[in-house]
């Protein structure tokens, strides 16, 4: 067909994937053979083409805790060795679902290249769903932010979409990346026609649409994914013959990212606010939660900072007597999944920093590097920043200690800048200097001008390194003063630091006052102390006296909740995933609101909102699961107060992935959400034969059977299973779900072979509705069939997405 890159058939040559078939130990061998066969094919045809070593996402998502970074890394490295030995010219990490998976694969390929002393470029391609994001919830512009620091050949999109749907996402990607862009789309959105996969787009239409992508800046690699044939690629080759791709022209402003959003490092207006409360040294409340290993409470501390509009969170767990690496791993893993803003792991231990970075799919900031013990530790931390694509905070500390004067601060900054950029190749925009400050509340003459020296160092730093960022732990300036007084001093000090050029600040954003809302006399007293205008202890004594009985007008979260009714609070806590707050509220709410109403109306109503937001793309998968966990805890607590007849855990579902299908992400998510909504789920795993379903159904006296499958062939297995159930005389309700399934297939091919009720579940929330009807015995076969046919006539029959739709 004239292609320039021939992909290997090694998409699933990964140990944890092949383990499902009992051949995990053959991953390297099969990767080797896949590359070797592709190489031999090219040679036998006498054509000029490269071999692209294909590495898929596997079947587990690290950002949801299904598999560890280390297991991913080890598996990808094994496959990479095989592809190198087989002669691959290019690594293609494709159909990616999770940025953390991409990072592990990138590191494995990079290390395999070094160990084998070869020079092989690496391309990355993600699957973007029709809703505009990867399965985990990452949109293309956020992915561009995450991958910008990495040395990759290209970034792109494949699978999930046809050319029509892909264009708008390519345009967005083009605007925010300086790397070449690839696109290998499906031949339209796939359709399920009688249990067979059908791709509707003919070669000429496909070629016409894909060739137009070359009008977009940076698009340089075109190809085909699912449903495309040699005819599609021949037509595409003819269309683009002689066309020179446009150069990448995207601009990636200096940013960091969570899995779900990018955050510019240089905010307008400044500063970037870094939440400081997830710090075991600085926050007593956080430390006590950590000591009790109350990770739900630890999560609440982070959520409270998000609500107070922090742009990212500093995470420091080091404390005497604790295992810092264990605490860092658990805390950051929790935050990465359930906090929407970026993270800044904070430690003097490089090992603790690395274990944190292995949990973060987004682009983090490392806090921090310094020269306290010379170059050694500084180099280790800079190397981590380079490897994991992170920004880095560099503290003005050297072998002599913390710099106190402006002159010494700048001397150390210049030394750090030189080493970070020339030795480690870090981008200036990813370097953030912390020139540090000391408290001006000690009364020690040495620190009278601590604030001034810091402010002037920030000003000079901005002048000599305008592309670098700056940060500061603002509250250090007021250490030792009264709590309320500190709020005023911190706010005024921050104002002057920002005026001098400070780009970010580590603060408790809930304890800041807008400069414009502080009274003139309060400002004067603070400024007298900061600038030590009388060069004596008098400004400090004047400050203490002035603020002795003065309170800052800071609205607490409790005060913000005062205007909400109990029902509104229950709804809010479920949607926000605040389990501890919810259980505390339910202890009181159950006495004034009937527990049945709380469960069946308020909580279920809130979960409906969660489902709608998820369906609309306004709520990402990890936060859905967080709300589901709160639902489970709430129902478990209220069950003791419910009448026996309405106990919500009485209905049992047998759930499994059908024979021949190893995909379990979607099935397991359904298990979590249904279980957390009070239903009993018997999960029988993957590749489940119909005999396994029947055995579990009878042993557990189940009320329904749920069958899941990603592949189109799995829909035919579902039909065969229904026929077998009928032969066994079973007529229980059946729930069917999966990416390749649609109502038309169920209506035309399933209902006719089974006598019981069949529910089509597009997602887990349809599963909740179905189990609710089953539990209440509200099943009318005629109305159910009529309802689904009416819905089917209003729905498109394309499968919306491919692998990504596994959650359905």
Key structural traits:
7-stranded parallel sheet, 29 helices, 26 strands, single chain
Written overview of the protein:
The structure is a single chain. The chain has 808 residues and is α/β, with parallel strands linked by helices. It is 46% helix and 13% strand. The protein contains 29 helices and 26 strands. Helix 5 links the parallel strand 4 and strand 5. Helix 22 packs antiparallel against helix 23. The longest helix has 21 residues. It is globular and about 95 Å long.
Task: Note the topology.
Elements: E1 5-7, H1 15-18, H2 27-45, E2 50-55, H3 69-86, E3 90-96, H4 99-116, E4 122-126, H5 140-147, E5 154-158, H6 163-176, E6 181-185, E7 191-193, E8 196-198, H7 203-211, E9 219-224, H8 230-240, E10 255-257, E11 262-264, E12 272-275, H9 284-291, H10 295-307, E13 312-315, H11 324-338, E14 343-345, H12 350-357, E15 365-369, H13 375-388, E16 391-395, E17 397-398, E18 401-402, H14 406-423, E19 431-434, H15 450-464, E20 469-471, H16 483-500, E21 504-507, H17 520-531, H18 538-546, H19 557-561, H20 566-576, H21 579-592, H22 595-615, H23 621-638, E22 652-657, H24 665-675, E23 680-683, H25 690-699, E24 704-708, H26 712-727, E25 734-737, H27 743-750, E26 758-760, H28 764-775, H29 781-793
Parallel strand pairs: 1-2, 2-3, 3-4, 4-5, 5-6, 6-9, 12-13, 12-21, 13-14, 15-16, 16-19, 19-20, 22-23, 22-24, 24-25, 25-26
Antiparallel strand pairs: 7-8, 10-11, 17-18
Helix pairs in contact: 2-3, 3-4, 5-6, 7-8, 10-11, 11-12, 12-13, 14-15, 15-16, 16-17, 17-18, 20-21, 20-22, 20-23, 21-23, 22-23, 23-24, 24-28
């Amino acid at each position: 067909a004239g292609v320039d890159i021939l992909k290997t058939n090694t998409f699933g040559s990964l140990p944890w994937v092949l383990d499902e078939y009992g051949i995990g130990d053959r991953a390297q061998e099969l990767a080797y053979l896949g590359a070797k066969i592709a190489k031999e094919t090219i040679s036998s045809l006498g054509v000029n083409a490269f071999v692209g070593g294909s590495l898929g996402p596997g079947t587990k998502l690290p950002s949801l805790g299904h598999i560890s970074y280390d297991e991913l890394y080890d598996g990808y490295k094994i496959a990479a060795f095989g592809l190198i030995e087989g002669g691959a010219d290019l690594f293609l990490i494709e159909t990616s679902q999770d940025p953390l998976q991409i990072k592990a694969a990138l590191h494995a390929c990079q290390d395999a290249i070094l160990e084998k002393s070869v020079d092989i470029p690496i391309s990355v391609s993600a699957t973007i769903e029709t809703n505009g994001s990867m399965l985990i919830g990452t949109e293309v512009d956020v992915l561009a932010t995450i991958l910008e620091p990495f040395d990759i050949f290209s970034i792109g999109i494949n699978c999930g979409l046809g050319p029509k749907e892909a264009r708008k996402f390519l345009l967005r990607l083009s605007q925010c990346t300086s790397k070449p862009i690839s696109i290998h789309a499906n031949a339209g959105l796939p359709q399920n026609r009688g249990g067979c996969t059908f791709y509707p787009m003919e070669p000429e239409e496909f070629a016409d649409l894909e060739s137009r992508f070359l009008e977009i800046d940076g698009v340089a690699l075109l190809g085909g994914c699912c449903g495309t044939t040699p005819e599609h690629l021949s037509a595409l080759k003819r269309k683009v013959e002689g066309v020179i791709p446009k150069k990448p022209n995207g601009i990636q402003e200096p940013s960091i990212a969570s899995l779900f959003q990018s955050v510019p490092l240089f905010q307008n207006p400044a500063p970037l606010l870094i939440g400081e409360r997830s710090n075991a040294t600085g926050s007593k409340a956080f430390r006590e939660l950590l000591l009790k290993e109350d990770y739900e409470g630890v999560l609440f501390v982070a959520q409270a900072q998000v609500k107070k509009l922090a742009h990212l969170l500093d995470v420091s767990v080091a404390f005497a007597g604790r295992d810092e690496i264990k605490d860092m791993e658990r805390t950051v893993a929790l935050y990465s999944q359930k906090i929407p803003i970026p993270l800044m792991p904070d430690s003097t231990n490089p090992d603790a920093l690395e274990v944190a970075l292995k949990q973060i799919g987004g682009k983090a900031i490392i806090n921090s590097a310094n020269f306290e013990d010379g170059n050694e530790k500084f180099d280790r931390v800079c190397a981590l920043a380079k490897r994991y694509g992170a920004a880095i905070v560099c503290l003005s500390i050297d072998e002599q200690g913390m710099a106190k004067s402006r002159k010494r601060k700048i001397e150390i900054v210049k030394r750090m800048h030189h080493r970070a950029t020339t030795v480690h190749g870090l981008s200036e925009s990813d370097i953030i200097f912390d020139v540090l400050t000391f408290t001006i509340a000690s009364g020690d003459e040495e620190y009278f001008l601590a604030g001034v020296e810091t402010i002037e160092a920030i000003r000079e730093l901005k002048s000599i390194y305008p592309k670098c960022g700056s940060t500061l732990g603002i509250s250090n300036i007021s250490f030792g003063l009264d709590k309320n007084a500190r709020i005023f001093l911190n706010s005024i000090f921050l104002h002057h630091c920002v005026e001098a050029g400070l780009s970010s600040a580590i603060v408790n954003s809930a304890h800041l006052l807008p400069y414009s809302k502080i009274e003139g006399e309060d400002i004067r007293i603070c400024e007298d102390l900061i600038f030590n205008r009388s060069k004596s202890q008098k400004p400090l004594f004047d400050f203490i006296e002035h603020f002795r009985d003065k309170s800052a007008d800071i609205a607490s979260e409790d005060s913000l909740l005062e205007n909400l009714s109990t029902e509104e609070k229950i709804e809010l806590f479920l949607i926000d995933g605040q389990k501890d707050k919810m259980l505390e509220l339910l202890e009181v709410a159950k006495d004034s609101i009937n527990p049945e109403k709380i469960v069946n109306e308020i909580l279920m109503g809130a979960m409906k909102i969660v489902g709608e937001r998820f369906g609309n793309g306004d709520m990402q998968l990890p936060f859905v699961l967080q709300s589901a966990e709160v639902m489970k805890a709430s129902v478990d607590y209220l069950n003791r107060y419910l009448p026996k007849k309405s106990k919500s855990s009485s209905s049992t579902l047998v759930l499994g992935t059908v024979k021949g299908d190893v995909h379990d992400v979607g099935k397991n998510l359904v298990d979590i959400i249904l279980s957390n909504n009070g239903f009993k789920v018997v999960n029988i795993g993957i590749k489940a034969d119909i005999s396994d379903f029947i055995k579990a159904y009878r042993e557990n006296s189940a009320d329904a059977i749920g069958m899941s499958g990603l592949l189109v062939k799995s829909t035919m297995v579902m039909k065969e299973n229904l026929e077998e159930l009928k032969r066994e005389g079973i007529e229980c309700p059946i729930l069917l779900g999966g990416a390749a399934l649609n109502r038309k297939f169920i209506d035309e091919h399933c209902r006719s072979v089974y006598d019981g009720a069949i529910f089509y579940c597009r997602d887990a929330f349809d599963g909740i509705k179905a189990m609710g009807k089953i539990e209440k015995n509200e099943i009318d076969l005629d109305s159910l069939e009529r309802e689904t046919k009416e819905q089917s006539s209003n729905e498109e029959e394309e499968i919306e997405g491919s692998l990504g739709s596994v959650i359905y």
